[in-house]
């Protein structure tokens, strides 16, 4: 009864409004109008003011409500529209023209939230970006919200973890950070893990933080985008979760990325961060770095690029590179302090075409040799070491490479030889002697030492004697007497069968292991294989390991072809897609997998690359003539002859015993894969 009296009293107070709406839409009932007024304002005084403003300005009901002085007018119109009133029109934002909720007035007109932020935006006194001010610094300059969140003055000690972080929520115990803010323990609707989740506005299901930050390849359309729905096995992007364009908002910069907010998408954030880093004081960006920026912006995984750029060492190194003038060259980068980040940036510049390609191992070896020579205190020793390192080792290495990159082992051997030679020269200098006056007694005393350099410096002594840098001295040569590890044919065939038929191993590891176990290939030769080494003729797959290609048996041919198809003309590194033809691409763009990384991966599967290669080479040398073996496997003819002599020597009985254990009667290699 009381509620009915209140309705009639309110109807009397807003009588002119009822008359106005009855003229606009005669079928509209008084109860609908009264309910809308109640939703717009709770107090009678506020309800009367809303009714009075609408009666005085009836154009507010026909799309002009952006000029209303009372926010309750907008709430009243929204309630009528929701009730199905067709003559009342919801207002558009007068600046952007979009149907969005209007907020505070600006210059007499109420704007949407996005236009309001743009209207009140000011250049941030710290980052310079045009954003709404959140605070002001000590000088009175505006500070945007992002800069204020990074300011330690806005941080407080989290009552949960104790770290000084930005306050995300206030609890009864005190402030908590973003990681510790209270959230319900729910089961994620995508990965099915139980943890702290938030309800996704796109699907209405719980979503954990890990899934919210995940970047996927959509299982339906194949596009690379952030995860919005689906399952872990069948993830979906925004377009496939809800194809309605009106449901999603767009990136505020590119206007392309579908997302739930108008914040910058990951790709636009990468572009903004790189532009800030690469722009110098004169407002320009070097052409080489602009190509790098374009390559990083167009990566398949912009989230990985953002994570990489957020590392302090990466940002500092990129900014230092941006300051290089007049042009960014290899020589300019060599002058900077070397580190892994700089080497990675150099590889990206080479992959994008900003820098010409070069052999990085050889380029690093040359300054190391110069530094080692300069460390000697006498000109005579510097001259001898220069001739030994530059004219003997480095010249021979360049002749062997034939425009191919140097391997890790080749460079390591030269470093060891030069280091050992320098150690001998330093030892002679401490004794008041020199290489030209060294006697056999001095050399024998040095060779009798317990250091590794003493035993390995014999090569330098023989070279110095042959080139008349030292008197006639005799230094014993260390001859290779055979592999040091055991040769186990049973294990070799067991490992080969496992790699052939077990699909749980990565295909690249299976192919690399089989090339070692079947064709006795070195790790450096495997890692530098390209698609140009792979050929097809008469339905067969051939692989050029030496001067004569070998026909790959099944199922190895299928695995190699799948590996070549998986890498393709371009393969993704951690950041960019670089044109390359490596069968075993590395983590850095334009470079193959390193020998060290390949060794770690094979050993993780229980393989011993050195012992497996020795066993395979021992068996092949006993069955194939040395000349054919050298051409087929790409090894030196002298090495093939040594292995052939070894296989017919003292280990013949051992090999026969191994073969007779479980493989009696099996003489053909194809039977080993039954």
TrEMBL record:
It comes from the Bacteria. This is Site-specific recombinase XerD. It comes from Virgisporangium aurantiacum.
């Amino acid at each position: 009864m009381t509620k009915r009296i209140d309705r009639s009293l309110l109807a009397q107070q807003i009588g002119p409004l009822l008359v106005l709406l009855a003229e606009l839409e005669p079928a509209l009932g008084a109860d609908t109008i009264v309910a809308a007024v109640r939703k717009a304002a709770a107090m009678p005084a506020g309800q009367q003011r809303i009714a009075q403003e609408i009666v005085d300005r009836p154009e507010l009901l026909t799309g002009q409500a952006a000029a209303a002085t009372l926010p309750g007018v907008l709430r009243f119109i929204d309630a009528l529209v929701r009730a199905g009133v067709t003559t009342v029109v919801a207002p558009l934002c007068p600046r952007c023209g979009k149907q969005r909720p209007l907020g505070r007035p600006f210059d007499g007109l109420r704007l949407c939230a996005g236009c309001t932020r743009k209207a009140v935006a000011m250049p941030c006194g710290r980052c310079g970006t045009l954003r709404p001010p959140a605070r002001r610094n000590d000088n009175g300059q505006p500070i945007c919200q992002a800069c204020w969140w990074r300011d330690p003055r806005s941080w407080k000690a989290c009552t949960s973890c104790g770290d000084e972080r930005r306050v995300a929520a206030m609890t009864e115990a005190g402030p908590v950070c973003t990681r510790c803010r209270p959230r319900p323990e729910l089961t994620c609707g995508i990965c099915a893990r139980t943890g702290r989740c938030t309800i996704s506005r796109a699907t209405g299901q719980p979503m954990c933080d890990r899934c919210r930050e995940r970047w996927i390849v959509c299982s339906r359309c194949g596009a690379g985008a952030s995860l919005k729905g689906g399952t872990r096995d069948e993830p979906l992007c925004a377009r496939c979760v809800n194809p309605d364009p009106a449901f999603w908002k767009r990136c505020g910069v590119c206007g392309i990325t579908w997302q739930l907010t108008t914040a910058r998408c990951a790709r636009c954030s990468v572009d903004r961060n790189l532009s800030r880093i690469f722009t110098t004081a004169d407002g320009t960006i070097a052409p080489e770095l602009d190509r790098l920026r374009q390559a990083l912006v167009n990566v398949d995984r912009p989230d990985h690029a953002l994570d990489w750029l957020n590392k302090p060492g990466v940002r500092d190194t990129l900014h230092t590179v941006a300051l290089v003038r007049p042009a960014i060259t290899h020589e300019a980068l060599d002058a900077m302090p070397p580190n892994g980040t700089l080497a990675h940036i150099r590889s990206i510049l080479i992959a994008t075409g900003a820098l010409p390609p070069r052999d990085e191992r050889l380029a690093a070896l040359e300054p190391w040799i110069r530094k080692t020579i300069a460390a000697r205190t006498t000109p005579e020793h510097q001259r001898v070491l220069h001739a030994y390192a530059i004219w003997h080792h480095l010249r021979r290495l360049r002749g062997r490479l034939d425009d191919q990159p140097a391997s890790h082992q080749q460079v390591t051997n030269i470093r060891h030889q030069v280091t050992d030679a320098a150690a001998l020269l330093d030892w002679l200098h401490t004794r008041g002697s020199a290489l030209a006056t060294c006697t056999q007694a001095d050399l024998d005393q040095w060779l009798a030492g317990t250091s590794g350099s003493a035993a390995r410096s014999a090569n330098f002594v023989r070279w110095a004697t042959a080139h008349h840098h030292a008197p006639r001295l005799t230094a014993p040569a260390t001859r290779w007497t055979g592999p040091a590890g055991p040769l186990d044919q049973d294990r070799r065939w067991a490992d080969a069968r496992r790699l052939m038929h077990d699909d749980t191993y990565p295909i690249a590891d299976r192919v690399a292991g089989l090339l070692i176990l079947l064709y006795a290939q070195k790790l450096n030769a495997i890692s530098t294989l390209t698609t140009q080494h792979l050929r097809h003729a008469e339905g067969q797959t051939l692989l050029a390991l030496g001067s004569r290609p070998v026909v790959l048996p099944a199922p190895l041919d299928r695995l190699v072809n799948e590996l070549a198809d998986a890498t393709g003309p371009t393969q993704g590194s951690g950041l960019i897609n670089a044109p390359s033809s490596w069968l075993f691409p590395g983590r850095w763009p334009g470079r193959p997998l390193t020998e060290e990384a390949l060794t770690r991966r094979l050993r993780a599967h229980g393989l011993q690359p050195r012992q497996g290669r020795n066993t395979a080479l021992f068996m092949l040398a006993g069955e194939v003539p040395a000349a054919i073996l050298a051409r087929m496997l790409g090894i030196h003819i002298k090495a093939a002859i040594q292995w052939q002599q070894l296989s017919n020597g003292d280990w013949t009985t051992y090999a026969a015993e191994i073969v007779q254990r479980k493989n009696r009667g099996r003489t053909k290699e194809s039977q080993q894969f039954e």
